[in-house]
From TrEMBL:
Pfam families: Nitroreductase. Residues 17-182 form the Nitroreductase domain. This is 5,6-dimethylbenzimidazole synthase. InterPro entries: BluB, Nitroreductase, Nitroreductase-like, Nitroreductase/BluB.
Length: 210
C-alpha cells in the first residue's frame, strides 16, 4: 500500500484551500504539456460501475464560443432580474465568468447512453452517472491548480443551447462548462467572500449522528 506522509497531507490541504473558482484569466496560451496531464488525471476519477461517463469537449471555434457567451449573457441578465434591488446591485458588481479571456474552454458532458459499467450501481440512483462526471471535474480542477492553472466553472448557461451549439450526441448532458488558463491574480479566499456576496459557512460539514 502506498503511504503518504504528513508533509504530503499538508500540501494536499494547501491544494484544496487554493482551489479557487477563477474568473480573471490571462489571455496567453496554455502549453499542451501542462493541459494534457491534467486531463489524464481527471480520467482517474471514481465512477459508478467503472462507467467513466465523462466526455470532454474542447471548444475552440470562435462562433461556438460566441454562442456560449451569448447564452451566458442572456442567463446572467435573467438571474440579475430575479433579485430584489439591494441584492441585484451586489450581483451586478460580480465577475461571474472568464469566457472572453480564458484561452481554453472545456465543456464536460455525461454520456447517459454509455454501456460501460453494464448499469452497475445505477438502477436505484441513475443520477450517479452525473455525479461521476462531477468527480472528474473536481479531479481536473485540483490537477490544474497543482500545475499552476486556474479553472472557472460557468453554470449561468442554458445547457440545451450549449449542447446544440456544440453539436454533441443527444444522449450527452452538460454537467460543466469550464474556463481554463493562467490566473491574473491568486487568492486563498473565494471571490464571492472577498466581494461580500456570501461568507463561508462554519457548520457546512457538520457531522450528524443517528
Amino acid at each position: 500500500m502506498v503511504r503518504f506522509d504528513a508533509g504530503f497531507r499538508d500540501e494536499l490541504a494547501h491544494l484544496f484551500a487554493w482551489r479557487r473558482d477563477v474568473r480573471r484569466f490571462r489571455t496567453d496560451a496554455v502549453d499542451e504539456a501542462v493541459l494534457q496531464p491534467c486531463l489524464r488525471l481527471a480520467a482517474l476519477a471514481p465512477s459508478v460501475g467503472n462507467s467513466q461517463p465523462w466526455r470532454f469537449v474542447r471548444v475552440g471555434d470562435p462562433g461556438r464560443r460566441a454562442a456560449v457567451t451569448a447564452s451566458f449573457e442572456r442567463c446572467n441578465e435573467a438571474a440579475a432580474a430575479s433579485y430584489d434591488d439591494a441584492r441585484r446591485g451586489a450581483y451586478a458588481q460580480l465577475k461571474l465568468a472568464g469566457l472572453r479571456e480564458a484561452p481554453i474552454h472545456l465543456a464536460v458532458f455525461c454520456d447517459e447512453a454509455t454501456e460501460a459499467g453494464h448499469g452497475l450501481g445505477r438502477a436505484t440512483m441513475p443520477e450517479m452517472l452525473h455525479y461521476s462526471v462531477v468527480t472528474a471535474v473536481h479531479a481536473f480542477w485540483l490537477a490544474a491548480r497543482a500545475h499552476g492553472l486556474g479553472v472557472g466553472w460557468v453554470s449561468i448557461l442554458d445547457p440545451c443551447a450549449v449542447s446544440s451549439c456544440l453539436d454533441v450526441p443527444p444522449a450527452w448532458r452538460l454537467i460543466a462548462y469550464l474556463c481554463v488558463g493562467h490566473p491574473v491574480e491568486e487568492h486563498e479566499d473565494p471571490e464571492l467572500v472577498r466581494h461580500g456576496w456570501q461568507e463561508r459557512l462554519d457548520d457546512a460539514t457538520t457531522l450528524l449522528e443517528r
